[in-house]
Design brief:
This protein has four helices and nine strands. With 219 residues, the protein is α+β, with helices and mostly antiparallel strands. It folds into two domains: 145 residues, Mog1/PsbP, alpha/beta/alpha sandwich (Protein Transport Mog1p, Chain A); 49 residues. α1 packs across α2. The N and C termini lie far apart (51 Å).
C-alpha cells in the first residue's frame, strides 16, 4: 500500500493534548529554534525531568538520562511534518517508551485501510492479533489492535499496540502506534496510551491564498 501524498491545498497536522509530567515530545529533526542541537535539548529535558520528580541528581545521573534521550531522538525524531513522536517517561532512571502518531489524507476503503494500519492481518504476527473497535470523541470510531511479532526474523518477540481512525470530517486517516521487546513496559504504558488516544485530533491548514479584494469594491 503506497502512502498517499498530501493534497496541495491542505496540510494536516495532529493536535495532541498530553500531560508533560508523563510524556516528553521529541522535536522534529532538527530545526528547533529553542535548542541549538539535539544534545542541548536532551540535557535541558533531563535536568527539568529530574527536577520535576524531586530527585537530587548529580551530574552523572543527569548525563545518563540526557544520553538516553539523545539516543531516542537520534533514532526517532520525526522528519515529516505529519508525524509526531512522544516518549512515555516514568522515572528519570527508567527506559522510556516511544509512541508515534501520523496523519495522512484518507485513502481507500475505510475498514480495509484501518485494519491495514493496525496490522489486523499481519502475516508476521505470532498469533492472530487482538482487534477491537475503539471510539474517541475527537476522531470517532476507530480500531485498536495488539499483536506479537518476530523481530527481523529472529526468535525475539515484539509487542505492538496500534490505533487507527478515519476522520470523515476532514478526510484524514490517523494511526498511533508503539512497539517494544519489553512486554511489561507496554502493559505498564497501556492505560496512559489509551488516555492519550482520546486526546488526539486533526487540524487542517488551508494553503490556498486568500482572494484579493478589488480596490474598487466598497468596504
Amino acid at each position: 500500500m503506497t502512502e498517499p501524498q498530501v493534497e496541495l491545498e491542505h496540510e494536516f497536522s495532529l493536535d495532541i493534548e498530553y500531560d508533560p509530567t508523563r510524556w516528553l515530545e521529541i522535536p522534529p529533526r532538527w530545526d528547533v529554534e529553542e535548542w541549538r542541537d539535539i544534545g542541548a535539548w536532551a540535557r535541558e529535558c533531563a535536568e527539568l525531568f529530574w527536577r520535576s520528580h524531586g530527585g537530587e541528581a548529580g551530574r552523572p545521573e543527569i548525563l545518563f538520562l540526557a544520553d538516553t534521550l539523545r539516543r531516542f531522538a537520534e533514532a526517532f525524531a520525526p522528519a515529516p511534518f505529519d508525524t509526531r513522536v512522544l516518549l512515555r517517561v516514568w522515572e528519570p532512571a527508567s527506559m522510556p517508551l516511544q509512541l508515534f502518531a501520523m496523519v495522512k489524507p484518507a485513502s481507500g476503503n475505510r475498514e480495509d485501510t484501518l485494519r491495514f494500519l493496525v496490522g489486523a492481518e499481519d502475516p508476521d504476527a505470532v498469533e492472530p492479533p487482538l482487534v477491537e473497535a475503539f471510539r474517541t470523541e475527537l476522531l470517532g470510531e476507530g480500531v485498536r489492535a495488539f499483536r506479537y511479532l518476530r523481530q527481523d526474523g529472529t526468535a525475539e518477540l515484539l509487542a505492538a499496540l496500534r490505533y487507527a481512525w478515519r476522520d470523515e470530517r476532514v478526510g484524514a486517516d490517523v494511526v498511533m502506534w508503539t512497539a517494544t521487546d519489553d512486554t511489561a513496559q507496554i502493559v505498564r504504558a497501556a492505560p496512559d496510551i489509551e488516555e492519550l488516544a482520546h486526546k488526539v485530533g486533526v487540524a487542517v491548514w488551508d494553503l490556498r491564498p486568500e482572494r484579493e479584494v478589488s480596490p474598487d469594491v466598497a468596504s
